[in-house]
Write a structure and sequence with these properties.
Layout: H1 3-10, E1 16-24, E2 29-36, E3 43-44, E4 53-55, E5 62-69, E6 72-78, E7 82-85, E8 89-94, H2 106-116, H3 121-128, H4 132-147, E9 157-166, E10 169-177, E11 182-188, H5 192-207, E12 212-215, H6 219-228, E13 233-236, H7 238-259, H8 262-268, H9 272-276, H10 284-293, H11 299-311, H12 319-334, H13 339-350, H14 352-356, H15 373-376
Parallel strand pairs: 2-6, 9-12, 12-13
Antiparallel strand pairs: 1-2, 3-8, 4-7, 5-6, 7-8, 9-10, 10-11
The protein binds zinc ion.
Length: about 400
């Protein structure tokens, strides 16, 4: 089969055709030029109806990415027509290979979304040689599309989480159905507008059965949940609480490091992992190193012991004991003379209800593809899905 024929079939072209295929050696890919086939009728972009007339407007050329052919990247180039539609008026035509305004073909979008389910999004981006934002956009579009086309299960426990490329660069808010460990919704940013879009999309009828929401102590999420789900209990995700705690430990570690000198400083080098990892996940020699470090008379040791002590909170069976332990811990942290811990304790105190909710309902958000903070914080592997109290 000629390459042109193959591409025509793969893209399901009817009113369009492949004009030529060029090798682009510099980019290591192939460029496929498309055009309208004769005078075949074109369709209206928004409604899909056949349009009677093509408008003689200027046609800027668009580029789109398609699935690679073996190791070659494939780029499509086409200048869409504007058509007169009976219902919509003057509109850009619909093309069969890609959604409107999409810079990737349906086929590539499906492949990306499929892989994004099992791989980190950054790995997916590297695999398809796309940038991370494009992958995010594809996944967003695909998830939303998929929802309209499958059976809807009532939501009872949801998780709201964010994915960021790097610290401070937020892109997406993800809503999970924690009963089914499934993504329900993905939206840009993590702002009030994001949450309004989610609840607007969900609608009051589908929001009603939601009883529990697991999220980070992020005011925007909290406010949105309180506004739209008055009866739901908010739980602050254990993973996020631990992440904030680890940040406090790390702040103390950095301060300690700055005050050290000479040999002491050399020995303290590359100990971040030891302070932040749960001791049961350390190798034998790492544990030996850690116990030596714990002999230091230094604020970092105090921070470490506080961190380890707070971990007990998550394991209490009795709510009363858990609460007692937490309150005592908060007092100690507030009087620890460690600024990062005082700050962390204040945050927990402000959100105490949501933290204590854990003692009654044990849910936590699942692992999130693309959450690079996981690696940054040396967090021991995050469990997939969620766990209920046994
Ligand atoms: Zn139309």
């Amino acid at each position: 089969m000629r390459m042109e024929t193959f591409i025509r079939k793969a893209l399901r072209l009817k009113a369009h055709t492949v004009v030529k295929v060029e090798e682009d050696e510099a980019a290591g890919g192939r460029v496929v030029y498309l055009d309208r086939l004769g005078h075949r009728r074109l369709r209206c972009g928004p409604c899909g109806l056949e349009a009677k007339r093509v408008a003689p407007t200027r046609r800027p050329r668009r580029r789109g990415r398609d699935l690679a052919m073996r190791e070659h990247l494939v780029e499509l180039r086409y200048a869409p027509y504007r058509v007169w539609c009976r219902g919509c008026g003057l509109r850009v035509e619909r093309v069969p290979w890609a959604g409107q305004w999409q810079r990737v073909t349906h086929a590539l979008a499906r492949a990306v979304a499929g892989l994004a389910r099992v791989l980190e999004w950054t790995s997916v981006a590297a695999h398809f040689r796309l940038n991370w934002k494009t992958v995010a956009t594809i996944v967003e579009g695909t998830v939303l599309w998929g929802l309209g086309h499958r059976h809807w299960y009532p939501l009872h426990v949801i998780g709201i989480d964010e994915v960021s490329r790097r610290k401070g660069q937020q892109y997406l808010t993800i809503v999970y159905d924690l009963d089914r460990s499934r993504v329900v919704w993905v939206g840009r940013d993590r702002t009030t507008a994001t949450m309004e879009r989610f609840f607007g999309w969900l609608g009051p009828r589908r929001a009603r059965p939601i009883r529990t929401v697991c999220c980070d102590m992020w005011a925007v999420y909290i406010d949105a949940v309180r506004t739209h789900l008055r009866r739901a209990t908010i739980i602050f995700d254990r993973f996020h609480v631990t992440q904030h705690l680890n940040r406090a430990v790390d702040d103390v570690r950095r301060q300690t490091w700055r005050q050290m000198q000479g040999r002491e400083k050399a020995e303290f080098k590359r100990t971040r992992f030891l302070w932040l990892t749960n001791p049961e996940n350390l190798q034998r020699d790492e544990r030996t190193r850690l116990s030596a470090l714990l002999q230091l008379n230094s604020p970092i040791v105090k921070a470490y012991l506080l961190k380890e002590d707070l971990r007990r909170f998550w394991h209490y069976r009795s709510s009363a004991w858990a609460e007692g332990h937490l309150r005592q811990w908060l007092w100690r942290a507030a009087h620890s003379r460690l600024a990062p811990f005082k700050k962390f304790a204040r945050m927990l105190r402000t959100h105490l209800d949501g933290v204590l909710a854990w003692t009654r309902i044990r849910v936590t958000n699942g692992a999130l593809e693309g959450d690079e903070q996981q690696g940054e914080d040396h967090q021991p592997s995050r469990p997939m899905g969620y766990r209920t109290a046994s």
